[in-house]
Each structure stands twice: as structure tokens, then as C-alpha cells.
Amino acid sequence: MACIQDQHTYTPTNCKGGTVLDLSGADNRSITGFHAHGGPNQSVMH
Fold it and tell me: In the prediction, which pLDDT does 1 show?
């Protein structure tokens, strides 16, 4: 189980597919799986 800490940034990853959660830049609403590129749309802060 992951230990989530406050004020840390995380990149949720699909271990089976190797993709990460990616917020669409087109509408800033849609979330897809995409290859990791380190952009701010692929990380979440807790």
C-alpha cells in the first residue's frame, strides 16, 4: 500500500499498461492514460 503524504506531488501510474493519468490539454476535463512525459498535467498534489 502506498503512503500518501501532504504537500507531495505524485504521478498515478497504470502498472500493467505502463501509462500515467493524463489530463487532456484540449478541454482540461478528460483524463486518459498516456506515456509519461513529466508534464504538469500528469501529476497530482495531495
Answer: 66
Q: Which three cell numbers stand for residue 27?
A: 478541454
CA distance 9 to 16: 22
Beta-strand pair 44-45/20-23: unpaired
- Residue 37, in any domain of the structure: yes
Range of the domain at 29: 9-45
**Per-residue pLDDT reduced to its tens digit, 1-46:** 678 889 999 999 999 999 999 999 899 899 999 999 999 999 998 7
- Residue 28 region, left (φ>0) first, then alpha (ψ -120 to 50), else beta? left
C-alpha distance across the termini of the chain, in Å: 16
